[in-house]
Amino acid sequence: MKKELKVIAVVLAGIIVFLAGFGLGTSKGITIDVKVDGANAAVAGNATQATQATQAPAPVTQAPAPATEAPATEAPATTAPAAPSADASKPADNGNASAPAAIPSSPSEIAAKYNEVINALKKTENVTIHKVGAVNIECTECSVGFLKGVVNSILKSFMSNSDDTIQFTGGKGTNSKGEEKWVNDYITPSGRDAAVTENDLASATAVAEGSGYKMTLVFKSEQAKYDGASGTSTNPTSHMNAMDPLNLATLELPMGAEITSADMTYPGATVEATVDGSGKITKLVLKLPLEGRGTGNLKGASLTVGLKGNLDDSFDITY
To answer: How far is CA 270 from CA 9, 127, 242, 259, in A?
Structure first.
């Protein structure tokens, strides 16, 4: 998700690069107001100057550690399904695929179970993952009216839907473009374990689905700020425990352009995770709405842009 979430950064870079060639203004800075509604999504990797400037870090070269099996629980003494125990975060009996999985109930139990199934997937060596992403962002406001169509053209050139299936063996696989991927990086948060806590969440629910259940986690609203003058930044730490939200402070722009300040708001991401009867995650859906303001400088040009759109990511997992 880290690479995909840089779609907004790619848009900013494209606009600034365009202005460098257009030569607007002589003494002002570039002010970019980004107002985006939607959810996280995949982005096609167009090989342009702007996309190269915002390319995600290279995949981890060290294979993830071997998967560790969740401890089995003792089968119920009677033939009837056992009522959920007080500790509903304990894994279901993986030795009996037909046994119903224990459903977590409280927000703390749901957060713990989410971390457990995501981190187990990250350590899985042999798995097939079908990832689908959809991106739809448009320019709704532009301080230089006749540039609105140009900005929309930039947006369209950087964004497209994606649909890819990777078969991982030994934790490593190759996508349809021939790029090498690791499960640990492919599943968000990229390159690190999920570490969601009850304090990160506005709400959390889990409901039965088939022999397993589906968890829905809604994150609290957060802000991320960057002050170029002091070099200080504030990260959306709760969102970072489950995904890779955009941080404009880390954006490297081409042609000498720079972002001098940024203020991003994350109203609250929604994450859905479906778990089967054996306690393994089989579907993951992430939706990340965001809005914000970034200020950049390049050759004294000035521009204000409003953006609105939808971004979605979903993963279907088979073992």
So the answer is: 22, 25, 10, 28
60, pLDDT greater than 70: no
> Scanning the structure block, which residue is given the tokens 């002002």?
28
pLDDT, one tens digit per residue, over 226-264 is 887 788 888 899 999 999 886 666 666 666 666 777 777
Residue in 290, 310, 284, 312 with CA at minimum distance from that of residue 221: 290
- Tell me: pLDDT of 46 over 90: no
pTM of the predicted protein model: 0.71
The secondary structure of the chain as a DSSP string is -HHHHTHHHHHHHHHHHHHHHHT--SS--EEEEEEE-S---------SHHHHHTPPPPPPSSPPPPP-PPPPPPPPSSSSPPPPPS-TTSPP-TT-TTSPPPPP-SHHHHHHHHHHHHHHHHT-SSEEEEEEEEEEEEEEEESSGGGHHHHHHHHHHH---EEEEEEEBTTEEE-TTS-EEEHHHHSSSTTS-----GGGEEEEEEEEETTEEEEEEEEPPEEEEEETTTTEEE--HHHHTTS----GGG---STT-EEEEEEEEE---EEEEEE-TTS-EEEEEEE--EEEEEEEESTT----EEEEEEEEEEEEEE-
Q: What angle do CA 234, 188, 179 make, to 5 degrees?
A: 115
